[in-house]
Amino acid sequence: MEKAICNLKTNKAAGEDNITAELIKNASCELKERLHVLICKIWRDEKMPDDWKVGLIVSLFKKGNKMRCENYRGITLLNVAYKILSSIILEQLKEYSEKILGEYQYGFRPRRRTMDQTFVRLTQICGYADILVIARNLSALEALCTELGREAGRVGLEVSPNKIKYMGFSASPSWRSVKGVSINGVTYEGVAELIYLGMLISNDNSVEKEIQKRILAGNRTYFAAISLFRNRLLSRANKILLCKTLIRLVVSYGAEAWTITKKR
C-alpha cells in the first residue's frame, strides 16, 4: 500500500470525496493504518464501498468545432482511496497478464511502443482506435471492411462510419482520388491526408508535410518552455537535457517510418 501511495500522481483533480493525492501522501501514520485496515477488509470480503464506485465525468475540449460532441474527450475523476486499491490490484495482475497477452498488443505495455506497430501487419485485433486497412482495389477493400465489421461484432465492438476516412495512394496524380467511396451501403469520406498513430500520411506518400509538422511541434514545445531555456539559474547541461527530453522526442517522433532521400 505504501508503494501505491508513493506512486499517486499529484496536482490532479479530486474525486467526489474532494480528497486529493497530496492529502493522502502527507497524512499521519494513523490515517494510513486505518486505510490499510479498510483495504484488507475489502480484499477479504471482495466487496467495495459504494462511494468508491462513483466517478465524476468531465468533458475536455480537444480541437475543432466546439459545437460537435466528437471534439470533446471525456475523463472520469475517481476517489483517491479507490486509486490506491486499483493500483494494488494492478500490480497483482501484471505478472499474470504478461503471460496471456499476445505479442501484437502494444501501447500500454512497458517497453512496447505504439510506433513499433507502424511496421506490423495486424492479423489479430481485440480492441482498437486506429487501424489502417490497405487494399489494391475497391473489391479487396470491400471484402476487408466486411470481414473487419464481422470480426468486430464477434467481440462486441462496432465500427464507426463517421470516423473512417478513405484515401487513394498512387504514384500517378490522376489515381489519387479524394472522392468518397461507398462500401456495403455506407459512404466514407475521401481525403488527401490523414493522421495515423500521430503521423501525417498523404496520398502521394511523401513525408515533407510530416517533417514540417514535426518541426512546428518542436517549435511549439520550445516556446512553451522558453522561460526554462532563458533561465540563468539552469546550467547548460540541464538545458541540453531539457532539449533532448522535451524537444528532440517531439521532433523525431515517427522518424523510423520516414522515407528519407538525399534531397531531404
From TrEMBL:
Any one Gene Ontology BP term: DNA biosynthetic process
UniProt name for this protein: Uncharacterized protein
Lineage, opening ranks: Eukaryota, Metazoa, Ecdysozoa, Arthropoda, Hexapoda
Organism: Coptotermes formosanus
PANTHER family: C2H2-TYPE DOMAIN-CONTAINING PROTEIN, REVERSE TRANSCRIPTASE DOMAIN-CONTAINING PROTEIN
InterPro entries per record: DNA/RNA_pol_sf
